[in-house]
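Purpose: get a first structural picture of the assembly so the mutagenesis plan has something to point at.
Setup: two entries, given in the order below. No constraints added.
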Amino acid sequence: MQKPKVPDIVVGRLPLYLRALSQMKSEGKRVTSSQELGERLGISSAQIRKDLSQFGGFGKQGTGYNIAYLADQLKTILKVDRVWDVALIGVGDLGRAVANYGGFLHRGFRIVAVFDNDPAKIGSRIGSFIVEDATNLVTSIRSKAIKVAMIAVSQVDAQAVTDRLVEAGVLGILCYAPISIAVPSHVKVQYIDPVVHLQRMTYHLP
Amino acid sequence: MQKPKVPDIVVGRLPLYLRALSQMKSEGKRVTSSQELGERLGISSAQIRKDLSQFGGFGKQGTGYNIAYLADQLKTILKVDRVWDVALIGVGDLGRAVANYGGFLHRGFRIVAVFDNDPAKIGSRIGSFIVEDATNLVTSIRSKAIKVAMIAVSQVDAQAVTDRLVEAGVLGILCYAPISIAVPSHVKVQYIDPVVHLQRMTYHLP
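Result (structure tokens, whole complex):
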């Protein structure tokens, strides 16, 4: 599939469309419309049509979208028509919750390695993982050819861990530490910081 | 402070600016520039100047920004010059990690009530909280006048919990369940779904 240069904000909505379509599919629905999708997501139907049109036409005028077909197309576009191996660094409370989260695999991701630098944690079992020594991070990630990582270490350690992930060949980092990390331009970073979201809401509150 | 109608995407960057400024402050810095801020955040200095100009001028031409002053102004704009009481619903692995997270208070939020519907969890202690029966959610949240909540329940329960939070007078909901929830227009919602972020990265990966 040819991929035009699409604004990142549009790319950011595709996973929401895919999530809603998968939900509809699990409800037994077969066809939907930009209106229905928009109502579920709180996004205007015009926005959805415009976003999807950037990747070609997925619906026929008047007949709506075939849910399974559109979901498959979005999976291909987002490259989750495959399963990505993921490394998780840091198994404090949050890292442990992430390691045990059952929602990754059916959406394209599988944690395959878990690291920490705490001697008390190294070698211990978390779910189906044995916690590896973070000292071996670069070697281990390289040998497994892992390209995606999640960082759940403290903000003090986040940049040093990032540097080693980049050295290991990781291309995408999801950072749970409340700090902006520096990476070379070929590496993509996304952040999860609940306080950023909370503050974005309180701005609007009376 | 007069508040102009600012695009939500701009509002969404303010917490990042505030976070970086607080970090700089803790490093002992007193003055910064849009260039320096931009480098830390991976955002262009022009974008930062444009965003901040929507709220009035915070820096004098050529002298940069006073970090403490700009941080205080952003706190006022984001309404985190106060501390918001927060309710947390759901104490599975993730909810437990959120309850134990130490990063809320100094950024404007304090969890004051924790709920679950699991009899095995109700009445148990998580950190400094006693888990309340979710049956009493509306009464308890109303009596405490809580306006902000975080949902860490399963996607099956998320909408029902949302409806009761709205009934209880909550105005802002941070949803960790991987589903879009429906709320009246006066209620703000933000989402945290790691897979959405991961897919947004894999789109760009080779």
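The radius of gyration of chain A is 19 Å.
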